[in-house]
Amino acid sequence: MNLRFVHVVSAGAVLTGAIAAAIAAPGAVQNNPLRVGMVAVNGAADDFLGSVEVSITNTSRKAVRLPKWQLPSDQFDSKLFSISYNGQPVAYEGAMVKRGLPQAEDFAILQPGETYRRVIDLSAGYDLSKTGQYVVAFNTPLQHASTSDRVMLHQNNGLPMSAQSAPLSLWVDGLDQLGGEKMSAVAKKPVGPTAVVNGVNYVGCTTARTSTAGQAVNAARTYAENAKGYLNTGTIGPRYTTWFGAYTSSRLNTARSHFVNIDSAIDQSNGQITINCGCTSSAYAYVYANQPYQIYVCNAFWNAPLTGTDSKAGTLIHEMSHFTVVAGTDDHVYGQTGAKNLAISNPTNALDNADNHEYFAENTPFQN
């Protein structure tokens, strides 16, 4: 990822037009130092073709350190924009990635008064094929972000602050876009040899990795069956409340439906599931939500235990939950601490968070 920062003379400068200021969520222990601006980038004929320019400015007197995947880029490996068309959510078509703790090389640093600026072709990562009015907003949780005095950018409830813009209303001609190459379309093509072993399709995997991944699939099937069985009994114990928050019948039904679908999907054994071994990044795995059931497993997957917290089997549960036809989950936060805080503060988002599903299934340490 190439990061380009532009120095601004005054951190307190007023941004006009369609640029919107991000504000800290209510109850934040400190002011959000990041201000997000967004404007449409018009074509030669002064028409909007799908691109916006996003600027993220550090308005504080301290440097801000944040994971690079929280910054907009052409890679579309994080869902950073909320887009709606006629009031309905627009499908994100980029990668949904399970990540571990960021390492030093995963961070970008914005010095006081610096601005990160990037032009993004939204049509490359979102479905803008319909002509009409769209509402676009940049919005990403700042998990693991901190200031130079090591103060985490957290709200009082323990959840991360968000970098967010005000919504931008745009008219899009679905037949006249930049035509940016779809990330998901490129990735859909298998890379390397394919082989179906015990009903699972493997792409670019060695014999040893095929065996290891096959064990993970079997363990994930056991996890999914156990989680479905727990929810079908109607039990509301610590296992449920830790990962999905306070009980309501509606939320229980959502969790139950999700794991019925996850169990059904992971049980497929006629080549529908594809394990793609072509990823070499430091992540655990990723999928494209609109491309069931291909799971790209990465370096952290191979180093993870078979079962237990952040395991190979749990990673497959996490990724399977992302598919639109399964549960359509998002990545609001990562890690057990973030997932527990999310369940307490926002049970609805916990039911939409892939890691909460994974940790519920792994059930480590064991809870009733």
From TrEMBL:
Q: Which EC number applies?
A: 3.4.24.-
Protein's name according to its UniProt entry: Extracellular protease
Q: Name one GO molecular function term.
A: metalloendopeptidase activity
Chain ranges of the Lysine-specific metallo-endopeptidase domain: 229-362
Signal peptide range: 1-24
Which family does the entry's similarity section mention?
Belongs to the peptidase M35 family.
Record flagged with keyword Zinc: yes
Q: Which PANTHER family match?
A: NEUTRAL PROTEASE 2-RELATED (PTHR37016:SF3), PTHR37016
Kindly state which keywords UniProt assigns to this record, in alphabetical order.
Hydrolase, Metal-binding, Metalloprotease, Protease, Signal, Zinc
InterPro entries from the UniProt entry: Fungal_M35_metalloproteases, Lys_MEP, M35_peptidyl-Lys, MetalloPept_cat_dom_sf
Listed under GO biological process in this entry are:
proteolysis
Q: Which cofactor does it need?
A: Zn(2+)
Originating organism = Lysobacter capsici AZ78
Q: Where are the transmembrane segments?
A: none
